Amino acid sequence: MNNPNLLKSIGLNESRVEDFERGPQSLVGDFEVDSSSASAYWTKSQDLLSLLPTKSKRTVDESLAVKELFDQSRVHRENYLRVHAHALYDRLTQNKTQFLRLDELLEHSAELVPGLTPSAEILHQERELIQSQKDGYEIDQGLFLSHVLAHQSSGLHLCHSMLLEHPTTREHRERFMKEGRLDLEGVSLRRQNNATHLVFQNGKYLNAEDDMTLANTEVAADLAILDPNSNIAVMRGSEIEEGKYKGKRTFCSGINLTRLYNGKIPYLWYIERDMGIVNKIYRGLATPEHSANEILGQTKEKLWIAVIDQFAIGGGCQYLLVTDINIAGDNAYLTLPARKEGIIPGVANMRLPRFVGDRIARQAIMMERRIECDTEVGRMICDEVVPSEKIEATLSQTIERITSSGVVSASGNRKAFRVSQEPLDLFRQYMSVYAKEQAYCHFSPALISNLEKNWDARNRKLKA
Length: 464
Description:
Distance between the termini: 47 Å
Number of helices: 21
Strand content: 5-15%
Shape: globular
Oligomer: single chain
CATH topology of the largest domain: 2-enoyl-CoA Hydratase, Chain A, domain 1
CATH class of the largest domain: Alpha Beta
Number of domains: 2
């Protein structure tokens, strides 16, 4: 340890401290042996952590001790994962014959190798805290997912798993197919004029995305893709009922910063979003028999149109990088305020340079550059930029133009673009980096200070 006397100096049980300070047993390469010894070491660390006060009540030395315990455990955790992540994934998925979504995979990993990822009990305790008071146990989920994704066959299998129908899609399918409409918390779905319209409906937060809306929005996207009675999917925001934008449609204002600050959005939300709904819009839906691999795989996909009436902020802008046609009002704008939030804007770091070039992408992500839709740069992302009163007509004309000439080639053309720009394996590699880096960002003190400074987060209240 960096300070071998620190743990003893704050009054922790000396025998427990000495036992922990002996360090983990060396890895021998045998899964059972290494898992058992590693689990024992992580349990010792957790036992010491449980003896310390909660974050808000710790002394400076106690805070340093907590950091030291986490740091040392994570060094060994990463060493273990470098050797055994692939074998562990095979155990959890029965040699890749079973498809587990991220939450299931992490739950089973915590049971099979205790201490590798946080237990259900620890996650429950952390969930009750505001973001600044969490200890960041979920970072260990990010380390695990990063190593799984880093291994090609395991990572591609996990990507495949997340491109299958959401577990709750089936329970809504019959109703939507019969009625042509569906209302879920945060999103609605309507079939109209040969298109299925997915509409963000979280108006009290300017159609932001959060833990209450993500699963429902993914279900809606699944149903839009699967709908046999439409050829196109449209993504748009609903009208806002109060405040500055009352009576106006807003597309999506990105992650709900109020719920983020209050600790309601788990780390896994980011990974589920980009490997789930965003990737489904880009690649389509896979089946257990057919992956999304561009060479030998096969997906069910549709052409997507996004309509931006006022703005697309953060995650909203990220959607525009995977949709096929973007229609915007001439007063609309796009932003990716990741620096001001202290997080990584999903897969935008890889996708945005394809649209506007590397320098402008860096300016947008790292220097808060605002992109007006009715500019040369804005038109690199938006295909149609029209006065706001002409948006409806432009959308109808676009749908008519596409469907009148047939959409049979749409999936083939989409796949042809992907195989040269972002094949599934490239996405896997990106997500391996993102899974780890976003985990540390999500629990960084900088995130809290950024939200307080740039969002006035302390004075914003959760809305019923």
